[in-house]
C-alpha cells in the first residue's frame, strides 16, 4: 500500500496565524514589536525553537533559551485557534485514501502541539503515523526523519511520496530516496522537487 507523507505547517494546514499570535504574545511580554504575517510565514519550517531564534535575530537580540518552554506551552494550548486545513485538503486526503494511499505526518513542529492541532481540527484519524520535530533525535532536512516514518510503518522508500512546502521537506525526502511533491500553496520554496502541485485538489490526479 503506498504511503503519502505530509508536512504539516504550510502543507496540510495554514498555521502561520497561530504561530504569529503565539510569537507576538511572547514579543509583547518582552516589550518587543510584533511581527506581520508574511514575515512569520517566511520563518516557519525549522521548528519552534528556530522560529524564536530567527525572530530574536530579526530584532537584533540574542535568544534566551529560558523562553522556549513557555512558548511551547502556548503553542500547544493555542495551536488550532486560527489554524485551518487548506481548502480542498480534507477532500484530497479522502480521495487519495480511496485510491489506496495511506497517510502519515512528518513535521518539524513539536509533537505535543502537532497532536493537539490534529485532534482539534479532526484530522488525526486520517494518519497512520505522526512524527514531530522532537519525536526523533533528528528532524528535517535530515533524511532520518522521513526514514523514521517509513520504518514506523514498514514501508519501502519506493512506495512513498513526501508532500511539503519547504526545502527541508524536499531535501529530507530526497535523502531518504522518497519522491517529493512541492506544495506550492504553502510558505516556502520547492527547488529540486520531483513534482509540484498548485493546490491540494491537484494531489489525487498527480499521485494517480
Ligand atoms: O513548525 C515549523 O517551523 C515547521 O513545521 P513543518 O515541518 O510542519 O512545516
Ligand atoms: Mg511546512
Walkthrough of the structure:
- It is built from 9 helices and 8 strands.
- With 208 residues, the protein is α/β, with parallel strands linked by helices.
- It folds into 2 domains: 3-14 and 85-207, Rossmann fold (3-Layer(aba) Sandwich); 16-77, DNA polymerase, domain 1.
- The strands form 2 sheets. A 6-stranded parallel β-sheet has the order 5-4-1-6-7-8, sandwiched between helices.
- α4 runs parallel beside α6 (111-120) and α7 (143-153) packs across α8.
- The radius of gyration is 16 Å and the shape is globular.
- The mean pLDDT is 97.
- The structure holds 2-phosphoglycolic acid (PGA) and magnesium ion.
- The site of 2-phosphoglycolic acid has 14 residues, from α3.
Q: Key features?
A:
208 residues, alpha/beta, Rossmann fold, DNA polymerase, domain 1, 2 domains, six-stranded parallel β-sheet, two-stranded antiparallel ribbon, 9 helices, 8 strands, 14% strand, binds 2-phosphoglycolic acid, binds magnesium ion, Phosphoglycolate phosphatase, magnesium, hydrolase, PGP-like_dom2, phosphoglycolate phosphatase activity
Query: Level of helix content?
Result: 40-55%
Kindly state the number of beta strands: 8
How large is the radius of gyration? Answer: 16 Å
Span between termini: 13 Å
Number of self-contained structural domains: 2
Label the CATH architecture of the largest domain.
Answer: 3-Layer(aba) Sandwich
Order of helices and strands: EEHHHHEHEHEHEHEEH
Ligand roster:
2-phosphoglycolic acid, magnesium ion
CATH topology of the largest domain: Rossmann fold
Q: What's the name of the CATH homologous superfamily of the largest domain?
A: HAD superfamily/HAD-like
Structural shape = globular
How large is the share of residues in beta strands? 5-15%
Largest sheet: 6 strands, parallel
Give the count of helical stretches: 9
The poorly predicted ranges are none
Q: What's the CATH C level of the largest domain?
A: Alpha Beta
- The computed structural class is alpha/beta
Mean pLDDT reading: 97
Strand order of the largest sheet: 5-4-1-6-7-8
EC number: 3.1.3.18
Pfam families: Hydrolase
Family: Belongs to the HAD-like hydrolase superfamily. CbbY/CbbZ/Gph/YieH family.
Cofactor: Mg(2+)
